[in-house]
């Protein structure tokens, strides 16, 4: 019944907005996604991305986000070039439209057939999404960081967004007190460490100490992504020193005792890297005096 309302080209845009909002809630259940696909509702939803009514454009990406969680539905969205249309909404003047479009891109990128190649085909797309990190809207920033975390999983795309200055832009956001932004910012930092000297640059620009403070947050999701970020950052020796001096060890020990396996693994990995550096430093300290004495004997 709801899809039939979408088929009417003359339908009032306010009605369409509410129909799409209702569908978004319905599609949180998998069996409803199957029904939507069977009655050919996805093409109608993708077509709505061409409209200009802001309240409608706020809802359409969110319903397509639910569709993207289903593999068969995601293939239809790809065939209709729906991801490109969602990406184009990042240019919209409405912060709400921008945020919902970026949030919708997360599963679209994750479940695309070849997400890396697809994203690279969007001319100027990567520069566009990186520039949204200059937004003054915290919700937009959080959603963009979530999308960047997915984009950065492809090494070629990570190289491109690095060239567009994603690292210093992410560092500029680390002192936020917003829980949602902290969660997704930490995730973006974690996956952006994999290219070139990004890991070292994050430390040099001062991202470590604020991230360690995130571990004192009461939100479990923030702990999970922050521990992951700290693990990736700990692959650089100087970052390990900064973490240790910032008092990260008690937080990591506490994290290892949780029942969250992802958090446990990331925290343990970070601790292992810190301890490995400490052992190497102790070994060097013990060996150096012997080396000096032996060289004196040789003289």
From TrEMBL:
<dbReference type="Pfam" id="PF00514">
    <property type="entry name" value="Arm"/>
</dbReference>
<dbReference type="InterPro" id="IPR011989">
    <property type="entry name" value="ARM-like"/>
</dbReference>
<dbReference type="InterPro" id="IPR016024">
    <property type="entry name" value="ARM-type_fold"/>
</dbReference>
<feature type="repeat" description="ARM">
    <location>
        <begin position="1"/>
        <end position="23"/>
    </location>
</feature>
<protein>
    <submittedName>
        <fullName>Armadillo repeat-containing protein 4-like</fullName>
    </submittedName>
</protein>
<dbReference type="InterPro" id="IPR000225">
    <property type="entry name" value="Armadillo"/>
</dbReference>
